Amino acid sequence: MFGHGTGGRPAERLLGRLGMAASDNTILRHLKGGRSEPAALRWPRVLGIDDWAWTKGQNYGTIMVDLETRTVVDVLADRSSASVARWLDCRPGIEIICRDRHGLYAEGGRLGAPKARQVADRFHLIDNLRGRLEQQMSR
Fold first, then answer.
1. Which CATH code, of 2.40.50.1020, 3.40.50.960, 3.30.420.10, 1.10.3810.10, is assigned to 39-137?
2. Using the 8-state DSSP alphabet, how is residue 109 labeled?
3. Per-residue pLDDT tens for 2-25?
């Protein structure tokens, strides 16, 4: 529960303060492996794809999230269009892919799930708008 709400390292710090020591790796392993329903039985219809840091500034992976159930479906070891395309190709039924505007995931979506509609996620749209407004206001 803590890992799902806060992520690996913040949950590790919070649990440490509560007297329940657990490493960030253990928390992430429980997040990934603690699904009540095996992923092979039901694939997401609406999928969120984003990158995240295994080691900040050095190692990046890809996280796949079922946006209808708000659960982590899978974590890929790298950040590449080929691995995203392979992952999507094995999972039929994905109708919508919500992603940032980076071309890497757009290409992976086109290759792996050509019939799925790709949309930009709210966070990145708002972040881009904020950046533009800040740029215009500073002039």
1. 3.30.420.10
2. H
3. 555 566 567 666 666 667 667 767
